[in-house]
C-alpha cells in the first residue's frame, strides 16, 4: 500500500532542500502582504464603528484555532508526509483571498476559520528538520524566518502602490495569482522530505490523543525549567508584537485619512488668509 500511494504522488524537482521551503513561505506571505492596504479598507468599510475590535477578534479566533490544530496537523504529517500538509495548509490559508472582492463578510469569516489550517510554519519547520543535520538546523530555520520577514517587508509597500495606482481589484487578483502559483509550486516542484522508513509502520497508523492535544505540550514544557523560561520569554516577546501587528497598519491608515481630511478642510481657509 505504501509503495502504491508513493507512486501516485509527484516526486517534485530535485532533492528536498531548504530552498523549496523558502519559496513556499515567501510566496504565501508575499500574497498576504500585498493585501495589507485593501484589507484595511474593506475592514473599515465593513465594520466602521468597531474596526479595531473586529480586527482583534478575527486575529484572535484565527490564532486560537491554529493553537488547537497545530499538534494534530503535525502528528498527521508524521504519518502521511510533509508535502500533503504543505499543500493543505497553504491552500486553506490562501482560500480567503479572492473572497475579499466577492463578499467581505465571508472573507473575514473564512479568515477566522482558516486558523485551523494556518500552521504552514509548523509544517515548514518539520520539512526543514527532515532534510538537515542538527548542526545545520539553526541556519536553515534562520533562513526561513528571514525569508518570511523579507516577504512582509516588501509586499505591503508594493500592494499599497499598486492599490493607489491601479485599484484594489488588481491587488486582489495579483495576490490570488501568487497564491495559486504557490500551490502549483508545491504540487509540481516540492519533493517529499519524510522517507517512508521514518514514518509509522502502517499508512493508517492511529494518532493518539496525546499527540493531538495542544495542552499536553504545555504540560511537558513545565517539566523542564530551562525550556519553561524560554517559552515564557518568547510568549512575553510575541504578545505585544502580535497586538501591535494587528492594529498598527490600521492605525496608520486611519491617521493618514484623518490628516487628508484635515488638509482638505483647512487648506481653503489657509489659502484665503495668505
SS content category: mainly alpha
Q: Compute the gyration radius: what is it?
A: 22 Å
CATH hierarchy: architecture of the largest domain: Up-down Bundle
The first-to-last residue Cα distance is 84 Å
Domain module count:
2
Major beta sheet summary: none
Q: Segments where pLDDT lies below 50 for 5+ residues?
A: 1-10
Give the strand tally: 0
Organism: Callorhinchus milii
Keywords: Membrane, Transmembrane, Transmembrane helix, Transport
Subcellular location: Membrane
Family: Belongs to the major facilitator superfamily.
In summary, what is this structure?
With 274 residues, the chain is mostly helical. The chain is built from 13 helices and no strands. It folds into 2 domains: 18-196, MFS general substrate transporter like domains (Growth Hormone, Chain: A), CATH 1.20.1250.20; 224-273.
